[in-house]
Amino acid sequence: MSARPKPKKADKLADGVVTRSLERRREIVRAAYETIAERGFEGLRMREVANRAGMNHATLHYYFAGKEALIDGVLHYIVEELSIGHDASAKTEACSPRQRIADYFSQILRQMRDQPEMFIVLTEINARSLRDSGVRSVMARHDRGWNRFLSAVLKEGIQKKEFQAALDPDVFAKVIISFLRGLYLTYAGRAEDMERAVHSFMRVLS
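User: That's the sequence. What structure does it adopt?
Assistant: Structure tokens below.
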């Protein structure tokens, strides 16, 4: 068996540049996320984000051309951290659709208790989207992924007669998203009340 070719020096350098670039982008996103959590969307200033990330204003704009691109990065970061918007049930595919939805709600409740600042950031961005078409467009793109995941699980549950046959999967997926968005606003800091609301909501599906 022939020996594997050693990576070329140029390839190593390229990989290192890519890795560093990704790290810098994440540093900027984290700085923007922390700024929104502390000061709200109105307190988000590109120059302050750059200072918090330890770089100059021009360098920040090299990675993110403007606020919309930065908000897109923040939402992507939250999606990764909270598994919102993609298949969060990858480890439970053998479970029934109803159990997958129940597990998903439990996961969101746990995150609301353990990482409340993320829901503060989401709420701030959502509020801004009501009067900013650019931010609204960014949010809508992420919501479509979230909706696809929920709709697929609901459709499977209807086919297996675990959920009401009259449910429209796509419409009810949007209802779930709206419910989860309102849950934190209504019951922030009151975990037991959140859990009771989720249990009541699950009964509607049956």
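The longest helix spans residues 9-39.
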